[in-house]
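Worked example (supplementary).
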Amino acid sequence: MIASAAIPVIPRGVRLHEDKVRGNWVLLAPERTISLDAIGLAILQEIDGTREFEEIVATLAQKYDAPAAQIQGDVSDFITGLTDRRILELSA
Amino acid sequence: MTYPADIPAPIAMLAELTYRCPLSCPYCSNPIEMAKKETELDTQIWADVFAQAAKLGVLQLHLSGGEPASRRDLVALVAAARKAGLYTNLITSAIGLTQRRLADLEQAGLDHIQLSLQGTDAEMADRIGGYKGGFERKMQAAKWIVEAGFPLTLNAVVHRQNLHQLPEAIEMAVAMKARRMEVAIVQFHGWAMLNRQGMMPTRAQAEEANEIVAAARKRLKGVMVIDYVPADYHSDYPKRCMGGWGTTGLNVTPDGLVLPCHAAQTIPSLQFENVRDKALADIWYHGAAFNAYRGEDWMQEPCKSCDRRKLDFGGCRCQAMAIAGEAAATDPVCIKSPLHDKMTELAHNLSSGDNVELVYRKSP
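After joint prediction of all chains, the assembly is encoded as:
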């Protein structure tokens, strides 16, 4: 699980992009294009490079009316999947 | 105009801005016959092609060559691509990139740089690149790229003569803080086809490279991603050519021809159209060369009835052309191809030569 105080960052060279041709959102990264579902997009839209993981989870919990304890595992897995591939970064 | 709904829009475009290059790597994937500078598309046409590409569905633009930095209008081209909404990746040897130019490219919105590596020391790199002093210039430019904060991929092209440097190349990429590395064992197309005897890795080397990459991927998880192109002559199954012919990517040559892959001109039966004459979308959806190997109707046995046809699409059409003499044949790399044994023998024989003279690429 990602530490509560860790700050997820979308680094330089990675961009959220609305793919109007296919009608979805994607994350553009070096030699990678990641199609986002509604949940992935919602998580990435909360990542602003200043807010801590805990705060992001709390915001999403409120927005989707779900218990924070229930969604934090999913959010953590999603972000970790991308940090492992050097697409997102975590700053302490 | 309407387009067939069963053909997906392309995701990536390789724009070969020029065939000019200060290096003369003997494995260059450019064609043996290259267009001259006078016939290169100008800034305006390229900008229009980028806008058409974005509208067609392209998300990722790879600016390549030759050496794209040999284009004096590179900064303007990057700006035009970003304006069109494309993710811009510069594929470069870094020769010709100054600090000033990198600052201008950053300003223009360049997203990412992929730097080629011919060897891990000057002796190897300058010999393979055919350019004395090139390694030193490359390392200087690499430092500037990293200092400027560009996300970096290091692309090590490896073959029989430099595969022993692979562990060191991986360490160099980590030291450069590259987020990504490509380890590409030379694929035999273009100039590389003339140098099979000098560059074909041995089977032992190919197997060792598999192990080195697997171990590095494990060790460097979360630090650096490694994409790997194995030695296909020594493989049992072929590469997924272009992720499917005419499904994912397209290539525009310096003089404006639109190709389904960079080696497609080696298939003599195909005819290609030019962005000077036709809209990019028309060429993608209706061009005869793009439709030639779409879907499965063109396939022969053993591909036609094989379960793997949806995984690898029968392999590489250009390799089928080169080895089997027929572009619609099963890629002879495949263990199910009647030519597979011949391919294995060929790989063995080509890799056991000694002191073979290399044929260097000549710029147009």
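Two points are worth noting when inspecting this output. Residues 11-86 of chain A form a domain with the Arc Repressor Mutant, subunit A fold (CATH 1.10.10.1150). The beta strands of chain A are 7-9, 15-19, 24-29, 32-36, 89-91.
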